[in-house]
Amino acid sequence: MKEEVPIAEKLAKEQREISVSQFFTKNKHLLGFDNPRKALSTTVKELVDNSLDATEEINILPEIIVEIKQLNDTRFIVTVEDNGPGIVKEQIPKIFAKLLYGSKFFKMAQARGQQGLGVSSSVLYGQLTTGKSAVITSKISRNKPAHYYELQIDTKKNEPNVIKDMIIEWDKDHGTKVKIELEGFYQKGKQSVDEYLKQTAIVNPHLNLIYINPEKYKMEFPRVTKELPKKSKEIKPHPYGVELGVLMQMLQDTKATTLQSFLQNDFCRVSAKVAKEICKKAGIYEKSRPKRIAREEVENLLKAIKETRIIAPPTDCLSPIGEELTLKGLKKEINADFYTTVTRPPSVYRGFPFQIETGIAFGGDIPKDEQIKLLRFANKVPLQYQQSACAITKSVINTAWRNYGLSQSRGALPIGPVILLVHIASVWVPFTSESKEAIAHYPEIIKEIKLALQDIGRKLVVYIRKHIKSKEQKEKIDLFEKYIPELAYSLSKLTNHEKDEIESKLKKLLKKELPTLEAENGAKE
Amino acid sequence: MKEEVPIAEKLAKEQREISVSQFFTKNKHLLGFDNPRKALSTTVKELVDNSLDATEEINILPEIIVEIKQLNDTRFIVTVEDNGPGIVKEQIPKIFAKLLYGSKFFKMAQARGQQGLGVSSSVLYGQLTTGKSAVITSKISRNKPAHYYELQIDTKKNEPNVIKDMIIEWDKDHGTKVKIELEGFYQKGKQSVDEYLKQTAIVNPHLNLIYINPEKYKMEFPRVTKELPKKSKEIKPHPYGVELGVLMQMLQDTKATTLQSFLQNDFCRVSAKVAKEICKKAGIYEKSRPKRIAREEVENLLKAIKETRIIAPPTDCLSPIGEELTLKGLKKEINADFYTTVTRPPSVYRGFPFQIETGIAFGGDIPKDEQIKLLRFANKVPLQYQQSACAITKSVINTAWRNYGLSQSRGALPIGPVILLVHIASVWVPFTSESKEAIAHYPEIIKEIKLALQDIGRKLVVYIRKHIKSKEQKEKIDLFEKYIPELAYSLSKLTNHEKDEIESKLKKLLKKELPTLEAENGAKE
Predict the structure, then answer these.
(1) Contact B148/B166 with Cβ under 8 angstroms?
(2) Tell me, what DSSP letter sits at residue A439?
(3) Domain B239-307 CATH assignment equals 3.40.50.1950
(4) A179 phi and psi, to 5 degrees?
(5) CA gyration radius, chain B
(6) Which pTM was predicted?
(7) Is the dihedral of CA A242, A247, A253, A254 positive or negative?
(8) What is this model's ipTM?
(9) B434 touching A, CB under 8 A?
């Protein structure tokens, strides 16, 4: 190394900021745009998820229209229209053409979207592969005009670039329509757009969906209930979930003027009594100004929080599907002999409330000798990729299904005529990647999923036992009936009684037993 | 919905920008900080990778000191010191305390770091779990002073927060020392810091590493070669790898004043002749101003590029380990009977050059009846996590190892006394997540890995056949020798010749054959 011109100075000139758009342009597979097929289904998914979240905001029954128009072998236009609240003019560019922008990231409430990445990443991908702008139309009220935008993302700055901005007529009270042109590939079957929409209909039984596929075939997924899902409420963070660095930041940002009021106001479940107890344990005066608490004291504060009994966070931030509606959803889309569902009570990981639901469809059209079909959902969104990397799959594999009437090889999914649905609802679902395809392996979550599977397993095995038992008994009766004449003949020879008399008595006896057997037989739910 | 106050207006107030630091604070598992154990090894990895990249910049033999000091059950201080070029004062805060900042993201040259995320994410994690600042000392030349910084990340802005900034004495010509305090957990074995360092030593045989572990035990990994790895050169993007959106951006950003000069200057492998051919095929005048080319024309341009024969990108942007040094690395750290290595010629995916290398150690201390041990590397960095999600693992599993002398169950790693090393070197390694743990499943990459495995498989089976064959022959000779007296006795009875004479003749015969057999026997490399 020449001392005169340190190489460090040459290297310094190469250092640059990387915008988050540039980062994800190069890493688009992280957002679910690995290949053209997945790109198409990711785009539909992000738009439909947004529409469902939007309609939930205004407690309205969702009416969503999805259209995929094929332009040539590799090019498509995806349009998704909803009857949600619409978006105010000023917010439209940022929501659609800026990555990491949104309302849900900082909000502790269950939602499909959570990162502020989904819809803008679809816009980015469309722009990258076709150069075309995303087209947004949105109307927020009958009395206000609709706004029409053509948007691109300035990838260097990660800021919206408004190409067109107009007021237009739109014969609709309120709602949003998004149109994205992109390179893609359309295929049916597993992991397809069609399958995604079908699964979405299962866990959103209140949704009315119209889907026009690239072959111009129009499909309807009608709603089976007018009951709206319980709206999830926003909660404050729970003290047990806070980390040192975050706590330090919160103390700087708070509007509270004393430590005690900070603890009471900025967290959930902290009463005056609990706040005082924490302060005392931490050895910090409860009237201290939050901004002036030193790092070492914050460490003591965090330790004190961990040592104090605080009740679990409220769970009205969650909106599970519920046992009844999950049942309706399954029955609507799957033809089976037996259906059952379980919704577990809410639980908590790292201060985040979450809840596991599971459902089973058994028999009927479902293939008997194959591995079960596993449907995974997070906040009512189907997870179609990376099954093997998911905590749900791990939990299913590690459950002893032999106890519940199914056969199973070690380390594999069980075998049997079963479609198994598992849903995690949470204010923050920990995904293994930005594309939200698999749940990370948090022990608290895996434990709860296992408990849910055991609950539903016990319900399944009751049905299987009855089902198989009654079937076996029916076979025994049939066999016995068949041999009555021969038996009567032998008995008549041995006892010197009339053969016909014995035969009629045996038949009577059999009839007496039948009602009990038939009652067991009719055990279908 | 009440028409008077559209909910959209209430919702608009909740919309916010999410800084990339805030995003990764909540999603820290995406960066490799899933749990305390992994957090510790990720931190060491990011710092050591940076040090190795730095020393390569100045063509110097790396001298790296890693120290992990344990403060209590869960708290550690990681210090990594190198003899790299150092960092100029102004750049230190951003490099260490701003996510998505660096020199390698926009550079087409093989490097360990590529995203501008690694070291700053370790600083972020330390701050989050301990509230402590990262401490950086750096010196760029003997004649200049050393700079000392204490840094935090302002997570709301994703900008550095300088806590301390001093000039200090440092008895060193040039280099950088980084100290991070964090919550962690130290454990030996698979996926440990110790294992990461051992594997790093294998693929960086020119590295001299001193490691002081949390038990204060000092380990040395001495270099086995003074030969420096070939320095990777920066190349321009290849036209085959460019996407429409990126091409449009490049046309806006270029300094070239004509389309032809743009094609020649902003890409590699485009001569005047090729540039003219592309313009002609696209139907665009070669002297057109790049900034004025319309979207539709860019589409034609991209189509024309795809239809034009352009030679593959230069491969001096790559720095493979090489067959000889991989062999040295394996021999240094693994005790086996047989070693062999293969470096494939470079190949290209999406315009990015890449190259596969593989090595095998067989027999010796390696367990016989277990699945082989697979060591995965990307740009000379060991990949310790997510083995099952990696394209390398997939390729190994899908290779028919029975053809190469190992037993193998369907869908599993082969069984045998083998440590298998696979290395991908590329200007842009496509990882499945920011934490860079597994290679994404690009078909071109999987194909090349398979070819490399077949190459090395053929070398392995030659050794196994010889080894087993000679062993079997030796056993036959021993057996034959044992029965010579008895055979001689029988022959003597049958033929009336002297038993001793026959015996000595048989022994002579055996000796005649021996040299050939022994030559085959001594086939160890």
Answers:
(1) yes
(2) B
(3) no
(4) -125, 125
(5) 30
(6) 0.87
(7) positive
(8) 0.87
(9) yes
Q: 486-515 in A: which are within 8 Å (CB) of B?
A: none
Classify domain A315-525 by CATH architecture: 2-Layer Sandwich (3.30)
Domain boundaries, chain A: 20-221, 239-307, 315-525
The tokens describing A116, both together, are 């502020």
What's residue A306's pLDDT? Answer: 95
Residue-wise pLDDT for B303-360, tens only, equals 999 999 999 999 999 999 999 999 999 998 899 999 999 999 999 998 899 999 999 9
Mutate to test the interface with B, among A2, A4, A5, A9 (most CBs of B within 10 A): A9
Contact B210, B66 (CB under 8 A): yes
Tokens of A252: 């700087």
| pLDDT recorded at residue A519 | 53
* Three-point CA angle B26, B30, B31, nearest 5°: 100
pLDDT at B175 over 80: yes
CB atoms within 10 A of CB A455: 17
Beta bridge partners of A235: A108
Strand runs labelled E in B365-494: 373-378, 381-383, 418-426
Burial class of A190 by CB neighbour count within 10 A (0 to 12, 13 to 18, 19+) = exposed
* In this structure, CATH architecture of domain B20-221: 2-Layer Sandwich (3.30)
Question: CB of A244 within 8 A of CB of A297?
Answer: no
Cα–Cα nearest to A476, from A524, A503, A513 = A513
Distance CA B237, CA A129 (A): 17
Is the CB of A246 less than 8 angstroms away from the CB of B132? no
Is the separation of the CB atoms in A36 and A74 below 8 Å? yes
**In which residue are the tokens 């040299």 written?**
B515
Does residue B25 belong to the interface with chain A, where contact is any CB pair within 8 Å?
Answer: yes
| AA letter at A465 | R
